[in-house]
Amino acid sequence: MNAPEKVKQYDRAAQTVGNIVHLEHFNVIHDDQRLATLFYVVGLGGTRDPYLFPGLDNMWVNFGRTQAHLPSRGPKPKPEVLRGTIGLVVPDLNYLKDSLARAGAEMKRVLPDKPTKFAWREKDGPTKVDTSGRLADGTPLSGPADLRKAVLSRSDAFVTTATEKLFVYALGRPVHYYDMPMVRTVVRRASKEGNRFSALLLGIVESDAFQKRVKKGS
Question: Phi/psi class of residue 53: alpha, beta or left (left: φ > 0; alpha: ψ in -120 to 50)?
Answer without folding.
Answer: left
